[in-house]
Design goal:
Layout: H1 2-62, E1 64-65, E2 71-73, E3 76-78, H2 85-97, E4 103-106, E5 110-113, E6 148-153, H3 156-159, H4 169-179, E7 184-188, H5 196-205, E8 214-219, H6 223-226, H7 232-235, E9 247-251, E10 254-258, H8 268-273, H9 301-311, H10 317-320, H11 322-325, H12 330-348, E11 352-357, H13 361-368, H14 376-385, E12 388-389, H15 392-401, H16 416-444
Parallel strand pairs: 6-7, 6-8, 8-11, 11-12
Antiparallel strand pairs: 1-2, 2-3, 4-5, 9-10
Helix pairs in contact: 4-16, 5-12, 13-15
Length: 445
């Protein structure tokens, strides 16, 4: 028994030793595996860091840094932003030194067409009142007897940027009406980069004096956002217009004009340098102090670009507009109130008022895909309160026959074809309205 017990004990001891050995080997293997995994992880992060450094270096070669230390990748400005003080000062200096500026400073409007201006190529001419016209023509405030005078109000789409005068909406409209035996005279009060507020103020300052029979306001939807802007350089980051603009603010059930008279251009760089101290900065929608704050992550240009790309890209840029067009938000509320005031003043002046819908390239593409416009509800509200000219159906037909791009010039204003379609649809509405007024007069007599 004693011998057997010893043998059993020896076997047990040996087995225990084997178990301990195996356990130690397994533990060593696990430690080795963890070390291998850790080394692999280190290698992965090392390679990732090398790749990031190479990527950051290459990306840094593709970006541009301007005089204000703003970093640009193509047309995209990367955060953190820097106030465009030097760029604006350069634009101001060039404007002050110029003897033939396209636009000039205006205390009420911010800027306006330079009276009697003529571009070097002769494509852009203004009469003595700043109205776009053919070369060497000046409109008189008093119209000729039996002439139907039409005033067009709006931005560069109404003005006819990127086409000569003969291919603008106004010129086409006048020609079509005359071909229909209507002695029409169309005055083009369009000004590049105008908001809806400035178009209204243009009526209030100048256009009303010409006593038009019909006033047509060109509703280009982007201008809704311009209604809540005070400094053009903050709205359009590479904009060369060195001007402030006035704007309205909601004041209970009415609207109140602020930043009027607008400060002179010379004061703009200093204002941009110290925006936080400006008492009106809270009314500048396109100034967000957070965009100008540096952070550890934004020191990387790739990270900054990636974050900006996620926030706005070609898939979501149209949807990002919708807050501006919400009937619950300030931009759309201001739009409705400004247009309502314009319509009332036009009618009180004895003229008929129309809104001309001016859809952009991306809007036509949305309609071609049977999707809803980003400003759908605002547009419906405008239609419920005003006489609206709808050229979109004919524009869509033309886009299907040719292409959307055939309707637009390189910088996305309307081409000759696009302007002609809009003018044709506008003429149809005017001819119909005149016939109805004539019928009413005949019945009354």
């Amino acid at each position: 028994m004693g011998e057997n017990a010893r043998r059993v004990e020896a076997i047990g001891t040996s087995a225990t030793a084997d178990i301990i050995t195996i356990s130690m080997i397994n533990k060593a293997n696990r430690i080795t595996l963890k070390r291998i995994q850790f080394i692999k992880l280190l290698v992965f992060f090392f390679m990732l860091s090398i790749g990031f450094i190479i990527g950051e270096t290459l990306f840094s070669l593709m970006v541009e840094t301007d005089a204000d230390n703003n970093v640009w990748y193509r047309s995209r400005l990367l955060r953190p932003y820097h106030a465009p003080v030097m760029a604006t000062k350069k634009n101001v200096d060039e404007y002050l030194a110029s003897t033939n500026s396209f636009c000039i400073y205006d205390p009420l409007l911010g800027w306006c067409n330079n009276p009697s201006f003529r571009s070097e190529d002769g494509n852009y001419c203004h009469d003595m009142h700043g109205i776009r016209t053919a070369d060497s023509i000046n409109y008189t405030i008093n119209k000729e007897p039996n002439t139907l005078r039409i005033a067009l109000l709006g931005d560069s789409y109404i003005y006819g940027a990127e086409v000569n005068f003969e291919n603008t909406i106004g010129c086409f409209l006048e020609k079509i009406l005359r071909e229909n035996n209507i002695d029409a005279e169309v005055l083009n009060f369009g000004v590049g980069a105008y908001g809806i507020d400035q178009a209204y103020l243009c009526w209030e300052k100048t256009a009303y004096k010409f006593e038009p029979d019909i006033v047509i306001f060109g509703f280009q939807p982007e201008n809704v956002a311009r209604n809540v802007n005070l400094i053009r350089a903050l709205y359009s980051k590479k904009e060369a217009l060195p001007f402030f603009k006035p704007r309205f603010v909601l004041d209970g059930k009415t609207i109140t004009l602020i930043n009027a008279p607008t400060p002179i251009p010379d004061s703009l760089p200093a204002k941009l340098k110290n925006m936080a101290a400006w008492n009106l900065s809270k009314h500048e929608t396109f100034y967000n102090p957070d965009d100008y704050m540096d952070s550890f992550w934004l020191k990387s240009k790739i990270v900054s670009y990636g974050l900006d790309l996620l926030a706005e890209n070609r898939f979501n840029i149209y949807e990002n507009e919708r807050p501006f067009y919400s009937l619950e938000n300030e931009p759309s509320n201001l739009t409705l109130k400004i247009i309502d005031r314009l319509r009332r003043e036009v009618q009180a002046n004895g003229a008929d008022f129309f809104i001309m819908h001016i859809p952009r390239n991306l809007d036509i593409n949305v309609l071609l895909n049977d999707e809803s416009l980003s400003y759908e509800y605002l547009y419906k509200q405008l239609m419920s309160e005003n006489n609206v000219i709808h050229p979109e159906s004919e524009l869509i037909k033309a886009a299907k026959l040719h292409s959307t791009n055939s309707l637009y010039a390189p910088s996305q204003h309307y081409s000759k074809k696009g302007n002609f379609i809009i003018a044709t649809e506008t003429a149809k509405v005017i001819i119909k309205a005149l016939a109805e007024k004539k019928k009413i007069r005949e019945n009354a007599s």
